[in-house]
Amino acid sequence: MMSKEQILERERRWALLAGIASVAAVALILVSFGASASGVRTAAGVADRLLDVDSNRSALVIASIVQAIGWFMLAIPLVYLFQAASARSAQVRRGLLGLIIVAPIFLGLGGLLSTVSVLDAATEFKNVPASEITKCVGEKQAEGESTGGEPAVTATGPEGSAPAGTEPDATNADSGAVSTTDQIEECRDDAARDARAESSMSGIETGLGLAGLLGFTIAVVYCALWGMRTGLLTRFWGSLGMALGAVFVFFTLFTLVWFIYIGLLFAGWVPGGRPPAWASGEAMPWPKGRPRGRGDEGESDPDPDPDPDSPASGPVLEGFGEEVPDETMPELERRKRKKRNG
Predict the structure, then answer these.
(1) CA nearest neighbour of 226 among 91, 35, 67
(2) Which range marks the domain in which residue 338 is found?
(3) 154 vs 42, higher pLDDT
(4) Does the pTM exceed 0.85?
(5) How many domains does the chain have?
């Protein structure tokens, strides 16, 4: 069992490292986000994105490695906050430390596996024969005719075919018809999505990614909760951390902003300094309904009940907080009554 002095010394020794790691991790993730595998979505335009990846594979690999390092580094501030809260409250479940560590690591590994999957899909899509695209376009045109639409005029020949990696010329169709260009793009994207789904790493990537997302959500919510309960985080930032952790999968960038704040907090670079619980080594929950004032930090408050028999004390004039001599009180009382009745 560590003493309070040992706990405070440990926290002082690791505070700057944890703060820098938190801010640097967010910077690495944001810088590499668009160019990494996470930027290759399965929405419209995925076919062109896979072709870009195939032509510049090294850029994707480097961006994904940088992003994975960023996710790995987020384990440092989470562990630092968890350990600080655990040292101040026996109610913190220390068995969750393993989850706090592995959750960001799973996210980083999931990103690396996603890179392998995307590179594999890019190779597969590049080798898709033009006949498959032609067949897909023909089926879409047949569907349009069966629903009452007019067949589109093709710009690439009677079959309306186009290789997977080419851009056909746009053509205008009759009123109510879908252009061949749009149909070709849809077919190319469909083929790209199929190549992405059929990658040999897609199953492992999905499982590891889901485990990382769930674990990271629990880690952020739990650390923010006990950081607030022990007074290491203010009510605002503790509540915000829990909210952003719960919706991490939808608002990833906002959750990363929270990590910037706690990084600055650990390093002591926030205005007003760190909450008193950091210096006391004990849990100091924030009072409900009001911010912690200087009186909460150990400074003596003015005596709320002065001795009425003290010679220095006297009646206080309402609204002014000044002592009034006893002999003036009858006249003051008469003036007050006159104002109330008049």
Answers:
(1) 91
(2) 305-342
(3) 42
(4) no
(5) 2
